[in-house]
Amino acid sequence: MVNVGIIGGAGYTAGELLRILVWHPTVNIAFVQSTSHAGHPITDVHKDLLGDTNLVFGEADYSAVDVIFICSGHGKTKAFLEQSNLPNDLYIIDLSTDYRPKNNDGDFVYGLPELNKESIETASRIANPGCFATCIELGLLPLAEEKQLSEEIHVNAITGSTGAGQNPTVTSHFSWKNNNVAVYKAFTHQHLAEITESVLQLQPDYSKAINFIPVRGNFSRGIMATVYTDCEWSLEEAKEKYQSYYSEHPFVSISNVIPDVKQVVNTNKCVLYLEKHGDKLMIVSVIDNLLKGASGQAVQNMNIMFGLNEKEGLGLKPVGF
């Protein structure tokens, strides 16, 4: 049995973690910490779990757990680790951006199983990838593995409103979000750094631009990324290479028809679709931003770290947004 704790238990990603972990056959949830809701039942916040658990937001007891999931806001994990006296043998899975760059000072492994599974197996600290990054990287890894990236990469990707987190902002209120879409952080999105590092891990000589246009969608959850770049493969060759690359990775599938976001919502799946247009290969990639893009992938990483079946606890379709 793996004893787990959750830090920052009131947000969207923590809620998804709880929906998975309360039914995970090899997990015991020892504590769920939340400064803003201390002493209250977690079902006051995550109401769909009523009847599934009697957990209360409480103090963190690191001596009682094997691993903690850190679901605090971006920029807070480094401060938390500096201020906390954690056991040396405690496993950490961080869902923030703080330790994703490879030049981090915390000995974290970048937790994309389809890229770094062997490293994850022996890691004690995991930097869980970003949602946009996961969706886009899974569309590019087979090309980078075969050194097929030769020109600029163009990406347009739209995400649901939960990608912005639980705290409301001007652009996340219903009256702005409803019946509306908008481009934001064009060419400058923070996930570009980890996307670039992942590509260079497989194809170190790639030096062209990755042009990323993120879009805020008017739906709650899911990401669809449309990626295109020059590629000398025929469509048949491309499909064979993608099938081969992901043959040992259970959550990635290659589809013969264009996927839609609802196909992957409430799952830990990534569905990829390929088309060839002249010299261009187009890849459509869809994931659930809160699961394969966050909490589902975090549990997938935990399973790998503890030698469990990679899919354990992730076959259910949790109730969510």
Question: Could you please describe the fold and organization of this structure?
Answer:
Strand 3, helix 2 and strand 4 (91-94) form a beta-alpha-beta unit. The protein has 2 domains: 2-128 and 294-305, Rossmann fold, CATH 3.40.50; 131-287, Dihydrodipicolinate Reductase, domain 2. The model has no long low-confidence stretch (mean pLDDT 93). The chain has a 7-stranded mixed beta sheet with strand order 8-9-7-10-13-12-11, with helices on one face. The chain is built from 8 helices and 13 strands. With 321 residues, it is an alpha/beta fold. The longest helix is centred in the middle third of the chain and has 15 residues, at 131-145.
State the CATH architecture of the largest domain: 2-Layer Sandwich
* Biggest sheet character: 7 strands, mixed
Report how far the terminal alpha carbons are from each other: 29 Å
Please state roughly what percent of the residues sit in beta strands, choosing from under 5%, 5-15%, 15-25%, 25-35%, 35-45% or over 45%.
15-25%
Active site: 131
Protein name: N-acetyl-gamma-glutamyl-phosphate reductase
Keywords: Amino-acid biosynthesis, Arginine biosynthesis, Cytoplasm, NADP, Oxidoreductase
Catalytic activity: N-acetyl-L-glutamate 5-semialdehyde + phosphate + NADP(+) = N-acetyl-L-glutamyl 5-phosphate + NADPH + H(+)
